[in-house]
Please model this.
Amino acid sequence: MQDIFGSEGPVMEFFRKTGLLIFASLLWLLGSLPVVTLGGSSAALYYTVVKSIRHERSHVHIEFWRAYKRNFKNGILLTIIYAFLGFMIYLNRGLILAASEGNAEVLQSYFLGKVGGSSVTVFVVLNGLAIVLLVLLLYLLPVMTRFEMKLSGLLKLAFYLAIRYFYFTIAMLLGLAVLMYGFVRFMPFPCLFFVPGIWTYATSYLVEKAMRPYMGEPKEGEDAWWLE
Model:
């Protein structure tokens, strides 16, 4: 019993890591305040959680701000791209619903639009694009922290990992759906102080396994913490 509740026991270790995850979530929230830095801040959170909390290297605040600076430019660019695409999807869905309200013929014209010579459902296209963007984001933020590439290369690798490890992708999408439901349904504001860190910690076990075969072997004398 003393070993369980001792300073080195699993109970104290649980509280210690929980406290660090809350601290990392607060740093993420602070780094995201300018809004356009949301992507870079999220990438920094992933790097910090994996390196400082899971593998216990360095301090949380040191690794967070180091990764934040390293991913600053790509993070801003990514945030702007996602904000634009997300707004366009939201706007078009809204326009379709507004134009078709109470008018079955207008609604049918939107749902049976001609794209590439085929009859398609416009809502399916829009919702499908939204899901693709979300799936890419699940891998893109971690990939940003581990590979030095242009944003186009990072996007290609994220897309490949999402398809190659589709079972991880499905598991994370289902988890995210449950998480978002609870976030909106119960306590949205308090969740910001601990959910980002806990979500990142949990999903990192899947994403790290997906990325590992493509990271190469460490250099001689290098601290290969990601292999532990």
